[in-house]
Design a protein that fits this description.
single chain; 86 residues; alpha+beta; two-stranded antiparallel sheet; elongated
């Protein structure tokens, strides 16, 4: 753990970007009753991605496609047709 002192500017802001890797673009901030704040790197997932990950068939199809040397994308039309049949 490292510790540094940060100064607030005239508008009571502080720059935190230098504390995180360049890959960090979102943070969760937790403010505690004693006034302390903990920042945790986070990732954001879209509703579409959440729906995809909640569908085991879609995830399995993506895994099979990723392992296939000839596949470059999922055949969504075939997936829709299979879903309406079954």
């Amino acid at each position: 753990m490292s510790e540094i002192t940060l100064d607030l500017d005239s508008r009571r802001r502080v720059s935190l970007g230098s504390l995180f890797d360049e890959s960090v673009t979102h943070l969760i901030a937790r403010k505690f009753d004693d006034g302390s704040v903990v920042l945790e790197p986070a990732s954001v997932t879209s509703k579409l991605e959440q729906r995809f990950h909640s569908d085991p068939d879609a995830v399995d199809a993506a895994r099979r496609a990723a392992r296939s040397s000839s596949a470059t994308k999922l055949d969504l039309a075939a997936r829709r047709a299979a879903r309406t049949r079954g």
